[in-house]
Amino acid sequence: MANYNPPPYRIKMVEPIKMPSKERREVAIKEANYNLFNLRARDIYMDLLTDSGTGAMSQGQWASVFLGDESYANAKSFERLQQVVEDITGLPEFLPAHQGRAAENVLVGHLLGIKPGKVVSNQNFDTTVGHILFNKGEPVDIVIDEGTDAKNLYPFKGNMDINKLNKILENEAEKVALITLVLTNNAGGGQPVSMANVKQVFEIARKYNKPFFLDIARFIENAYFIQQREEGYEDKSLQEITREFGEYCDGMWMSAKKDAYVNIGGFIALKDKTLADRLRERLIMFEGFPTYGGLAGRDLEAMATGLQEAVSADLGVVAHRINQIKYLVDTLHEKGIPVVLPAGGHACFIDVAEFLPHIPKEQFPAQALGIELYLRGGIRSVEIGSLMFGKHVDGVFVPAKMELLRLTIPRRTYEKAHFDYLIDILVSIKDNKEAIKGLKITEEPELLRHFTCKLAPVE
Ligand code: F0G
User: Fold this and answer.
1) Span 299-325, mean pLDDT?
2) Is 105 in the pocket of ligand 1 (CB under 6 A)?
3) Is the shortest distance between the CB of 127 and ligand 1 below 6 Å?
4) Residue range 396-407: average pLDDT?
5) Residue 56 carries which DSSP code?
6) Distance (Å, rounded) from C-alpha 194 to C-alpha 232?
7) 100 CB less than 6 Å from ligand 1?
8) Is a pLDDT exceeding 80 seen at residue 190?
């Protein structure tokens, strides 16, 4: 049996949740046009759509909320957050933004505005892809081959393929506008990137004089994996590791809705003051004055405390969370449900290409499993497969690299009994899985279709 580690907190405020009836679930999924993003939260028992902004803040964070300085310019809360970000990243220039994609709008919009081109990454996340395409750039994903093999136990499956990066730069350096690494690799199963890989990519970016930024939505989780798995890091603190990331890049951007344990927030941190000042000009247009960036002073305070607590060795916040996910992944694996191994950060990813081989990839098998999980258990998950990343090129369907269903774990929100319920529902689906049918798209927008498209079951 997989071990479950006791939580380093107890609960003092709860939110009631209710299981909608079977009849209601059947109506609700039709009303949502079989798109899980369209389901109403009131129709959901357990919401595993995302870990983004959906966690519980600590008492320390709630206490900070009351200290928020709501001055328009140069508030005390801005100064405090800037200092915390510098302590944790080592980066001196700081621009708050209201969430990760807002930071992407400022950073990608600016860099591709100067020079449209390729954005080479281990695996660009969907909102980043949206900003790259919107700015007439081209996302290029070169995660290592192990990263798309669900069963491979390599400890750093989020690494970038260094040979591929070298080849791209040798052959067409002039076409590359930006190099990034996503820590951890969300779209590839929450798998971590090693410090050695960050350093190698940085050295290559230096050699070709290309900007290199880290997407640090879940970099404290990534730092935890480095501490646990990479030689030479076992005695380093999480903060020593996150500061080392800062040495090997030009800057970082963060969706603070993840590892900063807040419901809203984000930022860009970087080394170069000239570039930071250019970015501040865009920030004023899209987010607000450069010291609040679309956030209230209270949000800046909650973010500062959340970051400090997440890197704290005493609190064990991130270690507990990673072990919670490991319990879910290992138990499902033991019960014969194919999952991405080894357990990564923030979510359990079901390998649906293997689980439902009877559904062709054009019919979105992972979405089909997500619908079934809702119908059976009132549980909302999210597809990370061909609905999100598949495309048609000259009329030919090109599937995503993997067909994954992500069971994303909000921070400090669900307990072991919830996970055991989820495991029971998945086992009951396994016993009857041949009956699950694929889906077809009936309406879709041009960009980021998975958020709003409409689907229907294939008869
Ligand atoms: N980068 C990564 C790696 C992300 O996971 C996300 C968001 C973003 C950027 C964008 O940040 O949502 O604050 O604008 N991921 C969420 C998810 C939505 O469910 O994985 P945002």
Assistant:
1) 95
2) no
3) yes
4) 94
5) P
6) 12
7) yes
8) yes
Count Cβ atoms within 10 A of the Cβ of residue 155 and give its class: 0-12 exposed, 13-18 middle, 19 or more buried: middle
Q: Say if residue 154's pLDDT is above 80.
A: yes
Residue to mutate, 125, 132, 253, ligand 1, most ligand atoms under 8 Å from C-beta: 125
pLDDT tens digits, 155-186: 999 999 999 999 999 999 999 999 999 999 99
Give, using CA atoms, the residue closest to atom 18 of ligand 1: 52
Note the pTM of the prediction, 2 decimals.
0.96
- Within 13 Å and on the Cβ side, how many CA atoms surround 77? 27
Cβ(259) – ligand 1 distance below 6 Å: no
Give me the pLDDT at residue 1, please: 64
* Domains recognised in the chain with CATH numbers: 22-51+316-457 (3.90.1150.10), 59-310 (3.40.640.10)
Position 453 scores a pLDDT of: 95
Question: Can you spell out the DSSP letters for 329-346?
Answer: HHHHHHTT--B-SS--SS
Using the predicted structure, report yes or no on whether residue 3 has a pLDDT greater than 80: no
Closest Cα to atom 8, ligand 1: which residue?
100
Nearest atom within ligand 1 for CA of residue 102: 14
Q: Which residues pair with 405 in a beta bridge?
A: 350, 383
- The torsion region of residue 185 among left (phi > 0), alpha (psi -120 to 50) and beta comes to beta
Which residues carry out catalysis? 72, 125-126, 215, 217, 258, 450
Question: Ligand 1 pocket, 265 CB below 6 A?
Answer: no
**55 Cα–ligand 1 center, Å:** 14
Contact call for residues 350 and 337 (beta carbons, < 8 A): yes
3-state helix vs strand vs coil in the chain, percent to 5? 45, 15, 40
Instruction: Find out whether 287 and 102 touch, Cβ atoms under 8 Å.
Output: yes
CA of 176 to the centre of ligand 1 (A): 23
- Ligand 1 center to 255 CA (angstroms): 6
60 token code pair: 């320390």
Residue 264 token pair: 């809203």
Residue 329 near residue 131, CB atoms below 8 Å = no
Report the pLDDT averaged over residues 37-49. Answer: 97
Return the amino acid letter for 150. Answer: A
Q: Which of these, 182, 114, 202, lies nearest to 344 by C-alpha position?
A: 182
pLDDT of residue 4 exceeding 80: no
What's the pLDDT tens digit per position in 263-285? 999 999 999 999 999 999 999 99
257 Cβ closer than 6 Å to some ligand 1 atom: yes
* Contact status, residue 321 vs residue 398, Cβ threshold 8 Å: no
Predicted pLDDT of residue 448:
81
